[in-house]
Automatic annotation (TrEMBL), chain A:
This is Phosphate transport system permease protein PstA. Pfam families: BPD_transp_1. It comes from Saccharopolyspora gloriosae. It is a multi-pass membrane protein. Part of the binding-protein-dependent transport system for phosphate; probably responsible for the translocation of the substrate across the membrane. Belongs to the binding-protein-dependent transport system permease family. CysTW subfamily. The chain crosses the membrane at residues 30-54, 91-113, 125-148, 160-183, 203-224, 272-295. The lineage of its organism: Bacteria, Bacillati, Actinomycetota, Actinomycetes, Pseudonocardiales.
Amino acid sequence: MRTDTADVERPAATPAFQPLGFGRKLKNGAATALFGAAFLIAVIPLLWVLFTLLQKGLAPLLRPDWWSHSFNGLTANDYNGGIYHALMGTLLEGLVCAIISVPLGVLVGVYLIEYGQDSRFAKVATFTVDILSGLPSIVAGLFIYALWITTFGFNRSGFAVALSLVLLMVPVVVRVTETMLLIVPDELREASYALGVPKWKTIVKIVLPTALSGILTGVMLGLARVLGETAPLLILVGYAKAISFNLFDGGLASLPLVIYTERSTGTEAGDYRVWGAALTLVLVIMLINLAASLLSRLFAVKTK
Amino acid sequence: MSAPEAPAADEPKKVVRAGDRVFQSLATGSGIFIVALIAAVGIFLLLRAFPSLQANQVSFLFSRVWDTSDPNNLKFGITDLAWVTVASSLVALVIAMPVSCGIALFLTQYAPRSLARPFAYIVDLLAAVPSVVYGLWGVVALAPVLNPVATWLNTNLGWVPIFADGNVPANSGANIFTAGIVLAVMILPTITGVTREVFQRTPTAHIEGAQALGATRWEVVRTTVWPFGRNGFIGGSMLGLGRALGETVALTIILSGVNIGPNFSVFDAGATFASKIALGSAEFVNDMQVGAYISAGLVLFVLTFAVNAIARWIESASGKGKA
């Protein structure tokens, strides 16, 4: 029973939570276990995929000629041959894609942060980048097909692939540039202006170098992502079993294309090549990711 | 660079330098280019799809036929494609949504702070595996393990239409059921990433307030974190849906070509919009045939555009209204 004075001091209200009984403890424990289990559920496929890759794909990678030969002249049952042609094709396409995407993406990021700010057009551009980052890779491929091959009349080629990859990589570069430019302290810009440095020079010489490590990391991560894309390759370039450095004409192999195409051989040797290529592709992506984190550490600007 | 100072400036204080002008127009031009690019995607797909759509002998939206072998007698409809696309994406969402939410809560509310970052990195690694590898893994490693589950679902819950017999045996592995699970793994990092970020933004005052009232960890989550982050979670799930709808190669590998139409069960094989286009690449010789596939691509573009736009809208709306 409450006394009158206590009622005045503390209005009658049921406590928000009942004393910690068995039921609440149980619920809390169950929730903790459930959320932890959810995390484990995500780890299982990751380890499983890596295990399958290593189990099936390691043998070819241990042969030295895997890295120095192509699949040229191989029959369906041949265990010789190497991935060199596809490795070069993948790196070549990635390089061209990066050469176009990086300046474009960085400039868009600079526009959004340094010039556009809250203008209406900047909002439209931000929305566009959002939509672009959700663009299915097959649609990017179809668009380049409709533009580059049907309308302009060029041949299917590695360059067309690189163009379609640009559509997928630019939003990544824009995003990371935006984030990094936002972190650059305004004091730096103001100090530069106060010294009479023009805005563009401030951006090029002060702001971008400060954000460089972050942008580089983002570029590498974006590159790693697009190198694994297969869908645009299927419609934009023919598969070549031989080594080729020709980006503008004829077939060009790449790691994802090897995986997809060699699958159809349906032989054990075909499987051997497919899994070898798959492990090689994942290795390339992991190496780029690793390089990204190393770069970010090397070039990190000391703040504080 | 010593750019000549522009004398035309009206206000004597503000000097516009040539370098400034060039650089600003470069940056703005790039912005305009990007916006024009997404418009060009829509316009060019539409332009290329139009002649084929006009020549189409059957209803594009409601036909279940896809026969583009004769460029002069095109028959293509998207009903079956739409079913397989939507069904596999929904299976993926049903699995990935609760798991992602659980992971996001685990990472933001439960995992020790020093481990939260490496744990998040592990989940992000799932996104680094290329989809073609997921396709291989799905067929070779996952499907055999799933077969007993699929068979069980089919025999015991076969009276539910979606678990009824499909156009391939339930234990074949090459069906929407397997594809959906592979897709779920692929969209897990997307949904988790967005959700984690929103959950992290839960005001500390709310959490501490609940703790002060004597809430357990679970009650804190239920009363503050979840109501705050719910919309962000839904937005993130929509982003994941967008990715699932457009996923190509993994599905092409898993749901490999079956010519009979699906029976509207998860034990169907078939083709999604994206995998149909990938499979059709051999037919990319005649503009009319290509146009049929571009029509399918256009539908996919519109679909993913809509889903992503809604996702971004929900995401940006959440967290603003409530403090």
